[in-house]
Design goal:
Helix content: 10-25%
Strand order of the largest sheet: 1-5-6-3-2-4-9
Radius of gyration: 26 Å
Structural class: alpha+beta
Distance between the termini: 47 Å
Order of helices and strands: HHHHHEEEEEEEEHE
Shape: elongated
């Protein structure tokens, strides 16, 4: 925390010159005005070093996105600083114990992003508690109702990407599900759960 020092300021009786007044609407320009202007520019303009870095990233965020989340993007715990590759949390994003749980018909669950993945959450889990990478901020939101019971790994999200923990996630893995068309087995993605009548999208 910055300390504050009481300093007695002595006002100069000298009038501002015309040069000082120019471009300021008749008001004297001060060093604090200049500092505020520089701070505003720093907050809205990416510097050349950072721009050169993210220009090399495979999935480059926009300048605005980067500046709004600079602390997270600059953290090597979350993003490879040379390639921009996402560094996902350990243990599939679970914080602590993982419990095998059966989702029952009628339960409502949801997901951000396309249905090709394996991660879900209880309906209305707060977005910020899902440990999602920053590119997911614009992802589509999908809600599903369980039609046929199936098992998931269940546990709390690990705090990651500078987002808080607290949410619950479901992960479908380490088994396959029955394909009603071919009679074979397919991967337990959300898409396959929908196709094979385990889930129905309701939003």
């Amino acid at each position: 925390m910055l300390s504050q020092t009481n300093v007695k300021r002595v006002e100069s009786p000298t009038r501002a010159t015309e040069t000082q007044r120019a471009g300021s609407g008749g008001q004297t320009s001060t060093s604090s005005d200049t500092n505020r202007a520089n701070q505003t520019q720093d907050a809205t303009t990416i510097n050349p070093t950072d721009k050169a870095k993210i220009d090399e990233w495979k999935f480059r965020p926009s300048d605005d996105k980067y500046l709004s989340n600079k602390k997270t993007y600059d953290n090597p715990q979350y993003y490879n600083q040379e390639t921009g590759d996402i560094i996902w949390p350990p243990n599939n994003g679970f914080d602590g114990d993982v419990v095998r749980t059966e989702l029952k018909p009628g339960q409502v669950i949801d997901r951000y992003g396309e249905p090709g993945g394996n991660f879900l959450s209880p309906d209305e889990t707060p977005y910020e508690q899902r440990a999602l990478a920053l590119h997911s901020d614009g992802a589509e939101y999908h809600v599903y109702r369980v039609l046929e019971a199936f098992e998931v790994n269940s546990g709390k999200f690990l705090a990651w990407f500078d987002r808080p923990d607290g949410g619950t996630q479901y992960l479908t893995e380490n088994y396959k599900i029955y394909n009603i068309k071919t009679g074979g087995l397919v991967e337990p993605t959300v898409e396959n759960f929908i196709k094979n009548k385990y889930l129905k999208e309701i939003n």
